[in-house]
Amino acid sequence: MKTIPISKSFTLIEPGPVVLITTSNGEKNNIMTISWTMVMDFSPRFAITTGPWNYSYKALRNSKECVIAIPTVDLIDQAVGIGTCSGTDTDKFYKFGLTPLKGKHVGAPLIKECLANIECKVIDVVEKHNIIVLEGVEAYFDDSREEKRTIHAIGDGTFVVDGDKLDRRAMMRSKLPDGV
């Protein structure tokens, strides 16, 4: 094996999928692209990493709610574009041709074109590490979408697309909670 710069080590375990986080400040909806996400356990708890450098952060902190929208590979250019401009001066729903849908539990909109959406409430903020802990309150999945492959950021401007699904449920049954 050869060594790589430690500054690039995150590209070896960069999580996925790329997600779109929607927020609302009561007057304006916004979307930000995030690839730094984490499932906390088998409950509907998630963590994202963001901070004051993102326009959506203030709305997220003030409203204490958001939507995690999961795009598929056919939306890669929109996801990258959303992540490379600011909501300060851009209506991202309009610019990227996305449709906001009203959720049941939060003011932030779902994104119609995404494969899945999860309405979330902020339950903790770990300031030291810019981690926002979310609890999902409602989840939606669009079975009618033909494209279901998600995208995963490597962290260097390249992406990996989901491929074949390998089933090992029988082997893992003792570790999976009921209903999974």
What would you note in describing this structure?
With 180 residues, the protein is α+β, with helices and mostly antiparallel strands. Helices cover 16% and strands 32% of the residues. It has helices spanning 10-13, 56-63, 76-83, 92-95, 169-172; strands spanning 19-24, 29-34, 37-39, 45-49, 65-70, 100-101, 110-111, 116-126, 131-141, 151-153, 159-161. A seven-stranded antiparallel beta sheet has the order 2-1-5-8-9-4-3. It has a two-stranded antiparallel sheet with strand order 6-7. Strands 10-11 form a two-stranded antiparallel ribbon. A hairpin with a 5-residue loop joins strand 3 (37-39) and strand 4. The mean pLDDT is 92.
What's the SSE blueprint?
Elements: H1 10-13, E1 19-24, E2 29-34, E3 37-39, E4 45-49, H2 56-63, E5 65-70, H3 76-83, H4 92-95, E6 100-101, E7 110-111, E8 116-126, E9 131-141, E10 151-153, E11 159-161, H5 169-172
